[in-house]
Write a structure and sequence with these properties.
heterodimer; A: 348 residues; 5-stranded mixed sheet; 4-stranded mixed sheet; 15 strands; 23% strand; B: 77 residues; 4 helices
Chain lengths: 348, 77
């Protein structure tokens, strides 16, 4: 089809984007609650089970995040019979990169054998990354005429855990996800709300091992916080109390602002899919915001907190179990490491 | 805010491993068996959802006993 200039502009303005399909890949190694309690027999036990995690899959030596993203993308392409020649954008959202340079998106682009006309880049965000990526993709589609985007999110954070870091070993899992975002007449992603509190950058951090703080003789000196949780400068460290507080302060206003922007109320929304940090925190948020339990998705029992991958996994599972149906309006909200947050409304 | 007995029964209901009736106003919550960061989150969540009061990490550090936490939440409701 050939467009006159004005027709093309109309087309760009009126063809919304839509999350058409999702898939995910989990590492083979499963770390169950039984495995955990065998490793830590004197552990804090049942209180941890309130986080809602029954098992999680974790990366083994030699496995990296892009492996999971690539596997998820291959499944997505195969199961949905996607013509790869129609993909004109690949976004890889992760903290993990194969090399210092080039972008991991370029490496994946080659492995997927995508067309040379396809744009590809990395986006370095964590728990808010899926929603940020949707915003970037949405914007590029509106302004450039791109029609089909692959959004890959992936995490193998468990590789950075201190061997005695019980709470994080219990809560987190590894996974990769793939989503197909396309122009579609029945779609619509937006409006968006974003936020950042950079002064809280060290609340969730792996401090040593990169540019600012290279590995040194102090990188593996153990530290204990006031609750006795173990970490060292080269391991993952999360201040759980501060992150909980940040979430209850930031997420309810974000959801209110998002609904106001869309001139909607909770009644107008069919489903709320949040990042999945733990069931306890999300239940607190749900109650504070006033979201009915039947409209709220918990999806971490078999996955744990998979950082960038939680939302697409929850979307995929909600479609499979029948909670998310075509035509539904769904609030997506990510919040965490950065500290960073973002929310949007997606029509399925 | 309700009396402290009900407050204590809510804590006992939320934190596994506490024998009902064993928690007293004078109990130092850091002496709860296996006190952990998860228990701190339980208290913070309880305060948020039941009383709409935000407890900070600093609040928890300042309070020693169940009575002191109760008093702090009461003062903010």
């Amino acid at each position: 089809m050939r467009f006159q200039n004005t027709d093309f502009l109309d087309y760009l303005c009126f063809m919304p984007s839509k999350i058409l399909a999702t898939n995910y890949h989990l590492p083979k190694k499963i770390y169950s609650n039984q495995d955990f309690f065998e490793e830590f027999p004197d552990s804090i036990g049942k209180s941890l089970e309130k986080t809602g995690v029954l098992q999680r899959s974790i990366a083994e030596k030699g496995e990296v995040s892009s492996d999971f993203a690539l596997a998820a993308a291959e499944k997505l392409i195969e199961e949905n019979k996607i013509d790869k020649s129609t993909i004109d954008l690949l976004v890889y959202c992760s903290y993990d990169h194969d090399y210092y340079t080039p972008s991991t998106a370029c490496v994946i682009h080659g492995k997927l054998d995508l067309p040379k006309s396809c744009a590809a880049f990395d986006l370095g965000l964590g728990c808010s990354g899926y929603v940020y990526s949707l915003a970037v993709i949405n914007g590029l589609m509106e302004t450039t005429g791109m029609r089909n985007a692959l959004l890959l999110t992936s995490s193998s954070l468990t590789r950075f855990f201190h061997m005695d870091d019980k709470p994080d070993k219990f809560i987190f899992g590894d996974a990769g996800s793939a989503s197909l975002i396309s122009n579609h007449p029945s779609g619509g992603i937006g409006p968006f709300v974003f936020g950042t509190d950079g002064k809280g950058y060290d609340k969730i951090i792996v401090k040593d091992g990169f540019m600012r703080a290279p590995i040194s003789e102090t990188s593996f000196v153990d530290e204990k916080d006031e609750f006795g949780n173990h970490s060292n400068p080269a391991s993952f460290k999360m201040d759980g109390v501060s992150v909980f507080l940040f979430s209850v302060r930031v997420v309810p206003p974000m959801i209110r602002e998002l609904l106001e922007k869309a001139s909607m109320s909770i009644d107008d929304i069919d489903l709320f899919i949040f990042h999945q940090p733990n069931v306890y925190l999300n239940e607190t948020l749900r109650k504070k915001i006033g979201i009915p339990v039947e409209k709220f998705v918990h999806c971490m029992d078999l996955f744990g907190n998979t950082v960038q991958a939680t939302i697409p996994i929850a979307i995929n599972e909600s479609i499979k179990n029948g909670r998310l149906k075509p035509g539904m309006k769904v609030v997506l909200a990510g919040f965490g490491v950065g500290l960073s947050w973002a929310g949007t409304i997606a029509k399925f | 805010m309700e009396d402290i007995t009900l407050f204590i029964s809510k804590i006992e209901g939320e934190i596994d491993g506490i024998v009902p009736g064993s928690l007293k106003p004078e109990t130092h919550f850091r002496e709860i068996p296996e006190w952990s960061s998860m228990h701190a989150l339980v208290l913070m969540a309880l305060s948020e959802t039941e009383y709409d009061v935000t407890l900070t990490g600093e609040d928890l550090r300042k309070c020693g006993t169940v009575q002191e936490i109760y008093n702090l939440i009461s003062s903010r409701t």
